[in-house]
Amino acid sequence: MTALKNDRFLRALLKQPVDVTPVWMMRQAGRYLPEYRASRAKAGDFMSLCMNPEFACEVTLQPLDRYPQLDAAILFSDILTIPDAMGQGLYFETGEGPRFKKVVSTMADIEALPIPDPHKDLGYVMDAVSTIRRELNGRVPLIGFSGSPWTLATYMVEGGSSKDYRKTKTMLYDNPQALHLLLDKLAQSVTSYLNGQIMAGAQAVQIFDSWGGALSAAAYQEFSLAYMRKIVSGLIREHEGRKVPVILFTKGGGLWLESIADTGADALGLDWTCDIGSARERVGSKVALQGNMDPTVLYAKPEVIRTEVERILASYGKGSGHVFNLGHGITPEVNPEHAGAFLRAVHELSAQYHA
Q: Is 193 one of the catalytic residues?
């Protein structure tokens, strides 16, 4: 494989020295970009965009072509590819988000679920990873990803998005054996899926625990974190002669940073409700930190964005171990020029923290 021309993202995740703080954005390939909307229209719909490796590659590279400051590319896909490969029948309703034709509600439903083979059942994702990696030609590292078992389970039990996770939490308390079986199958599936991405060319991986923050402290430990720990322990941690860093991101997980840092992951993603300086004090040198500007700051004027970038950099302080990111995904309404101002500010203002 081609040598990396810019590896500061990987070095920062391993707390190695860097010249400036690396930066990327969750959902950096998305609807805020007119070129993405044009590609989606050409593909026909969202799933066609995801399932065609050439289209997935095209939209993955679009933000890098627009913003040379980006220090990583992230695979363009969806977190619900695994449930779809388990036979749940993923589709998208306009204005309603993802839906499943089948839901799981009983032990029998869960026992019948297969564990997908990443190469046979999710081969289009592996093909996308290898295509993107080839076309990147060493520009920046490629991030692979998956949803966490708990997050995937909520969609499978609810049948789609939910505000209160009523069905999933009812299963958690009334039938925990069933939910544990579902989570165990999902942990096995995520592990093999991420390992497949690593073998196909992903140079770091992130687990998105989007809905872990909806759990109580005790339930989070038992039904979310325990399964992410299991995944981390089963991942390929070195490939092509260098370490493959693992990032865990629990939205709303600021109360549990110490526990998340004990999983063996290399980095923790922070949402915007955490102070990154306080988080650094809490986890010490155990892990790197990724984050954590409020995405809505990007609606503000460029000078305001720049001030907020400076505040977060100052809060983290000197030294490596910080990957700048938003505290969640960039939203469709953001002006692309504001995103550019954000990325430029990170590189321009962070050099002083790495002297």
A: no
Q: Which of 31, 66, 237, 282 is catalytic?
A: 31
Return the domain boundaries, the chain: 29-279
pLDDT tens digits for the chain (355 residues)?
A: 678 999 999 999 999 999 999 999 999 999 999 999 999 999 998 889 999 999 999 999 999 999 999 999 999 999 999 999 999 999 887 767 899 999 999 999 999 999 999 999 999 999 999 999 999 999 999 999 999 999 999 999 999 899 999 999 999 999 999 999 999 999 999 999 999 999 999 999 999 999 999 999 999 999 999 999 999 999 999 999 999 999 999 999 999 999 999 999 999 999 999 999 999 999 989 999 999 999 999 999 999 999 999 999 999 999 999 999 999 999 999 999 999 999 999 999 999 999 8
Which is the catalytic residue, given 8, 11, 27, 344?
Answer: 27
| Exposure of 200 in the CB half-sphere (CA atoms within 13 A) | 26
Q: Which of 32, 36, 67, 155 is catalytic?
A: 155
State yes or no: is 134 an active-site residue: no
CATH pick for 29-279 out of 1.20.120.140, 3.40.50.150, 3.10.129.10, 3.20.20.210:
3.20.20.210
Is 124 among the catalytic positions? no
Q: Give catalytic status of residue 306 as yes or no.
A: no
Among 8, 67, 71, 78, the active-site one is 78
Residue 280 appears among annotated catalytic residues: no
pTM for this one?
Answer: 0.97
Q: Amino acid identity, residue 119?
A: H
**Using an 8 Å Cβ cutoff, are 266 and 247 in contact?**
yes
Active-site residue, selected from the candidate residues 40, 66, 237, 282: 40
